[in-house]
Design a protein that fits this description.
The chain folds into three domains: about 200 residues, Histidine kinase-like ATPase, C-terminal domain (Heat Shock Protein 90, 2-Layer Sandwich), CATH 3.30.565.10; about 120 residues, Ribosomal Protein S5, domain 2, CATH 3.30.230.10; about 240 residues, MutL, C-terminal domain, regulatory subdomain (Ribosomal Protein S8, Chain: A, domain 1, 2-Layer Sandwich), CATH 3.30.1370. About 35% of the residues lie in helices and about 25% in strands. It contains 20 helices and 26 strands. The chain has an eight-stranded mixed sheet with strand order 7-6-5-8-3-2-9-10, with helices on one face. Strands 11-12-15-13-14 form a five-stranded mixed sheet, sandwiched between helices. Helix 2 runs parallel beside helix 7 and helix 14 crosses helix 16. The longest helix has 18 residues. The N and C termini lie far apart (about 70 Å). It binds adenosine-5'-triphosphate and magnesium ion. The site of magnesium ion (MG) has 5 residues, from helix 2.
Length: about 550
């Protein structure tokens, strides 16, 4: 029994139709989507010369009935929808009944298929418009040769085989990512290049985005009122200067969506340097009636009915993973030798903290768990603070951590920042543009806690800096702030970039490497880090501290073996 039907004209007129075969990769995408829609669990792809000579996609899906083969190549013929209601709640990747017809119009196409109920397969193609018997297992193979052989104008726009291949590879990886339960293989010019066996979502993500990504990523898994999101997103340490590792799927469909991008950007905004891009593979599931995929012929754009709710949901799911509280595992009660503060074996439980705390503050701590980052034991090469907590060793990048603390403080203070007048005002020679900027933005600078004014077109004086940054070197700090304001131009633009401006200030206000700190100062910084949201990363997305547990140390020394 055939199941492909020609869509009624009224429905056809509702479908966002148009060009689909922009280049070999677009044909490959359509063929792979058809295979997934057919329920295939194994799909193999053969390409020649970047897909320009040959694209062959073979699957083990449910196949096409003999009487449907010719229909499959007809325009507006589909088995996936038949009514307007179905167009409004699409569950398949395809729905327009256009792809095969469009590809067949610009290439030599052959279609081989066999349903499980048949004894053998059938083939149709350019040379055999009527099905002829063909031996094959259940499933479908589509062979597309000589793309654009009949449209020289299009052929001229093809790039080199290597470029077209790299586009095909992108499509292949994207589709493989979307269906971890399906096995995929890829050959190019007879060489086996990629092979993915059926896997879990996490397994497939690691295979495609690489182990480095997987190690730097956290799992995302949230659901609420009809929406759910799964996948992995990298901590900002693993950011990239390109957008190569950004995969967002909605109901299994790879999409590029402004709303989703915005939600992600916002979640990463405070922890990622603005020229870096986050890396993620995320899968949103939503009731098909809540989205419209019939927006663009390439089907990579969608519209959400409740766009605000989706934005909020995605933003919160990501933000949650990006700013976990500084929570470490519970204190062990194991006996270990410690070198500090006393040279004897002692219990690393609450008593230990009490002892330590007495030494530092001569006061009893409320509870040991209040100090997950432990207590400083020294400074390494002027750059790192070494601290000891119940887990073992904590190593803190002093400058990065302080920068984050200062930034969060600046960000949360409202109104005019308290000023710290300089005992000796700092003057520096300036360009006329710097002087003009200082003059024009005097109010804004005052609000930020700076008293900066031009003495002459070539001299600027700094009389006060924000109290939070009182230890900063006033001149480079003032220069950096002026430079940034100049770059943003109008005051309105500055308001939008306020956080970036604060980040610049924080960077200058944070302790420089090589500054020796006392144990008290170091402990004070650790306490501030514990109080600060997102203190685990500096404003540029680098980590600010890490933990080395006693068992990791034990392993290094092969203890207990
Ligand atoms: N690999 C396949 N396995 C089983 N059936 C297939 C396969 N490829 C195509 N078909 C059948 O052929 C029909 C036409 O495919 P085509 O890709 O042209 O349209 P579509 O997938 O329905 O919609 P769209 O144009 O949005 O892709 C499909 O509806 C499906 O019934
Ligand atoms: Mg299709």
């Amino acid at each position: 029994m055939g199941s492909i039907k020609i869509l009624p004209d009224l429905l056809v007129s509702q479908i966002a139709a148009g060009e689909v075969v922009e280049r070999p990769a677009s044909a490959l995408k359509e063929l792979l989507e058809n295979s997934l829609d057919s329920g295939a669990t194994s799909i193999s792809v053969h390409l020649q010369e970047g897909g320009t000579k040959l694209i062959r996609v073979a699957d083990n899906g449910k196949g096409i009935a003999r009487e449907d083969l010719a229909l499959a190549l007809r325009r507006h013929a589909t088995s996936k929808i038949s009514t307007l209601e179905e167009l409004h709640s699409i569950r398949s990747l395809g729905f327009r009944g256009e792809a095969l017809a469009s590809i067949a119009a610009v290439s030599k196409l052959e279609l081989f298929s066999r349903m499980a109920s048949e004894d053998h397969g059938w083939k149709i193609g350019s040379n055999s418009p009527d099905p002829v018997p063909s031996s094959r297992a259940t499933g479908t193979t589509v062979e597309v040769s000589d793309l654009y052989f009949n449209t020289p104008a299009r052929r001229k726009f093809l790039k080199s085989a290597a470029t077209e291949f790299s586009h095909c590879l992108d499509v292949f990886r994207r589709i493989a990512l979307s269906s971890p339960g399906t096995a995929f293989s890829l050959q190019h010019n007879g060489k086996a290049l990629q092979q993915y066996s059926a896997s879990t979502l996490e397994g497939r993500i690691s295979e495609i985005l690489g182990n480095e990504f997987a190690e730097a990523a956290f799992s995302v898994e949230e659901s609420s009122s009809g929406l759910s999101i799964r996948g992995m997103a990298a901590r900002p340490v693993y950011s990239s200067s390109t957008r190569d590792a950004q995969f967002f799927f909605v109901n299994g469909r790879f999409v590029r969506d402004k709303l989703l991008n915005h939600a992600l950007k916002q979640a990463y905004q405070d922890v990622l340097h603005h020229q870096r891009h986050p890396a993620f593979a995320l899968f949103l599931t939503i009731s098909p009636g809540e989205i419209d995929v019939n927006v663009h012929p390439a089907k990579t754009e969608i519209r959400f009915r409740e766009s605000r709710a989706v934005h909020q949901f995605v933003f919160h799911a990501l933000e949650k993973g990006l700013s976990p509280p500084v929570a470490l595992r519970p204190a062990t009660t194991r006996e270990i030798p410690v070198a500090y503060p006393v040279q004897k074996k002692m219990d690393l439980g609450v008593a230990f903290y009490e002892k330590l705390f007495e030494q530092h503050f001569e006061e009893k701590p409320a509870a040991a768990e209040d100090f997950p980052l432990g207590f400083a034991i020294g400074q390494l090469s002027g750059v790192y603070i070494l601290a000891q907590n119940s887990q073992g060793l904590v190593v803190v990048d002093m400058h990065a951590a302080h920068e984050r603390v200062v930034y969060e403080k600046l960000k949360t203070s409202s109104g005019q920042f308290p000023m710290q007048p300089l005992l000796v005002p700092a003057t520096f020679s300036s360009t006329p543009l710097e002087s003009e900027t200082a003059q024009e933005n005097r109010d804004l600078l005052l609000e930020l806690g700076f008293d900066i004014s031009p003495l002459s077109p070539t001299t600027i004086v700094v009389r006060a800096v924000p109290a939070l940054l009182k230890n900063a070197d006033a001149m480079p700090l003032a220069r950096a702030v002026l430079k940034e304001i100049m770059e943003y131009g109008a005051t309105r633009a500055v308001a939008e970039k306020r956080n970036e401006l604060l980040a610049t200030m924080a960077c200058h206000g944070a302790v420089r490497a090589k500054r020796m700190l006392t144990l008290h100062e170091m402990d004070a910084l650790l306490r501030e880090m514990e109080q600060t949201e997102r203190s685990g990363q500096c404003n540029h997305g680098r980590p600010t501290w890490f933990q080395m547990t006693l068992s990791e140390l034990d392993k290094l020394f092969m203890r207990g073996k």
